[in-house]
Amino acid sequence: MSPWPFVIAAYGVTVALTLALLLWSYASMRRAEAAVENLKRQ
Amino acid sequence: MHALANPARFLRFARPVTTWLLLVGLLLAIGGIAAGLTLTPPDYLQGETVRILYVHVPSAWLGMAGWIGIAAASISQLVWRHPLAAVAGRAVAPAGATFAAICLITGSIWGRPTWGTWWEWDGRLTSMLLLFFLYLGYVALASAERERGGEGRIAAIYGLVGAINLPIIHYSVLWWRTLHQGESIGLSGSSIDASILWPLPLTMMGFTCLFAAATLMRMRADLAKAKVEARMRRMGRE
């Protein structure tokens, strides 16, 4: 049994879920802070 | 901590720190992963699969550290009524749940070639799975409480009760000597050879910085939403 598919799968899952968490958090922050700015301009 | 109790002061601190944590975290995590995949020798027993160590151990640490953060925020809220404690608890939970999930998935992937099975109801694996479900419960409870306009006290009590699982996870490999290996990295040293171990601090620090950055971004989002809701309520009254 070649070990590399397991190693690649473990790293792939880690990178994908970490990036998803960061992008989701960044998008939530940008959306919420943009709403504050819009409200200030009104 | 009390110096940052004022949300405006907290935001002045959080804005530059978020960017730095992201940059340093990405740099360290990418460096550690590259080193772990290319510069270290294979293990004499496990061969190349030992490289999963560099992502599995940080995710296990962060899965548990996240709940330590929730417990600290819960105490801070229940005892000192820190105004940002509930916000911090809500922000830590999704990051903790993500890393607990990464720990479970990478552990399962590591288990197949090493133990010959994807899953076993062993003490460490089961208590870690329980931690993941505790996170899901906390996220649901804290969101529901926030939507109802509550102070987050029920979520804080749940956070403290859930912390009972942390020593169970830590000591599970000593109490129930089943499939998961015993402690190989402790405060007094490590049973892993230094030629294999050295990239681990890089990925540990890198993913910890990324975890902290995600938490700060979620806290900023939560505070901004609260500001918009307060402004809308005021506008509705005028």
Provide a quick synopsis of the model.
The complex is a heterodimer of chains A (42) and B (238). Chain A has 42 residues and is mostly helical.
Description:
The complex is a heterodimer of chains A (42) and B (238). Chain A has 42 residues and is mainly α. In chain A, 90% of the residues lie in helices and 0% in strands. Chain A has one helix spanning 4-41. Chain B has one domain. In chain B, 75% of the residues lie in helices and 2% in strands. Chain B has 8 helices and 2 strands. Chain B is globular and about 75 Å long. Chain B has helices spanning 7-38, 53-80, 85-115, 123-147, 153-162, 165-175, 194-197, 200-237, and strands at 185-186, 189-190. Chain B is mostly helical. Chain B starts with 6 loop residues before the first helix and ends with a helix. Chain A binds chain B through residues 1, 3-4, 6-7, 9-11, 13-15, 17-18, 20-22, 24-26, 28-29, 31-33, 35-36, 39, and chain B through 22, 29, 33, 37, 47-49, 51-52, 55-56, 59, 94-95, 98, 101-102, 105-106, 109-110, 112-113, 207, 210, 213-214, 217-218, 220-222, 224-225, 227-228, 231-232.
Kindly list the characteristics that best describe this protein.
heterodimer, A: 42 residues, mainly alpha, 1 helix, 90% helix, rod-shaped, B: 238 residues, two-stranded antiparallel sheet, 8 helices, 2 strands, globular
